[in-house]
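Re: that chain you flagged

S.,

Sorry for the slow reply, it's been a week of failed gels. I finally had a moment to sit down with the sequence you sent. For the record, here it is as I used it:
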Amino acid sequence: MFVGPYSITSRELCITLTSRACTEFACSLSSFYHQRLMLRSPPRFHIPGGAGAIGLDLETRAPVFHPLPAYMDNTFTAACHFFLIANEITLAYLSEDEKAVRNRLSLPLAEAIFHRLLEWSKQSSLQLFGTTSDTQHKIVLHTWFHSRIIDLFRPFQEPEMRLQSFAYRECTTRDIYTASLNQLKRHLYLYPLRYAYAGLSGWFGMALIQLTSSIVSDPAEPDCRFWFYLCAHNLYQLSRTFPLLKLVLEIYSKLAVTKGILNKEEANTFLRAHNESVGGVPLRGDYVLDLNAALHNRRDARMDRLISDLDTVSNGTSDQGGSER
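Prediction finished late last night. Pasting the structure tokens below so you have them in one place:
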């Protein structure tokens, strides 16, 4: 809890902070697992740190404006607004409808949400992020921002389409997708170097899954081996805190073999070097890992299906692929 100049036991304050925390937690879980774990309506209470009063003082009945500690800057307030937009993406993209995502979405909807994200980034000064003085929570918020943009435009990559609501009409869905993907790569490289506890941050894991899935889906990328190994190393670091990621790492390694990014010997050498053993790791069957495949059939992209399919393929896969790169 943030400490303010009034009683922290205030009912109004507790309800406000709890409601916002629940919203952010539900949206973040939805992003991580790509499951529809959203709130159908946003909290009715004002956002802490915003312009509105969060309640009335119990004694004086005067409006209470909750200040945030200096080290947080405006990050918490910005995150509250961000997750309201992120929840709309979840509602639109993670429908229970079994139809392919592209068949039930429209580019105008994606562009409208993208405009809201851009406006949010301006109001929250997100464009200033990326300096050496950035705090860890700012970097994480930046990765969330680009992860959701990737979610927005992933369904419109094949074929790529021109955006209709921007003055520069040559801008395409592929341009936006690639720009955010490159920003995630940048943060993947710099984040662990700057922050000693990066390996403990499950929040960074959400962006890491996005990036790893995109890399194994595009083996033609010239530097895909470098980025795959970097993603795999970071997954290993996080797996010390989140054991499920040990299984995720093995699945992505096998996917890399099937896509020709690595050969079987390279994948096995990497896993042995990191002393990976998935014994005793609980299987979360509905965990979506192949985000591109999920656009067409979510069941084929789930952890349980991938394990079954990859085991079948690996038994007959030759040692061809990554060794020639």
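What I noticed first: Residues 264 and 319 are 5 Å apart (CA to CA).

Talk soon,
D.
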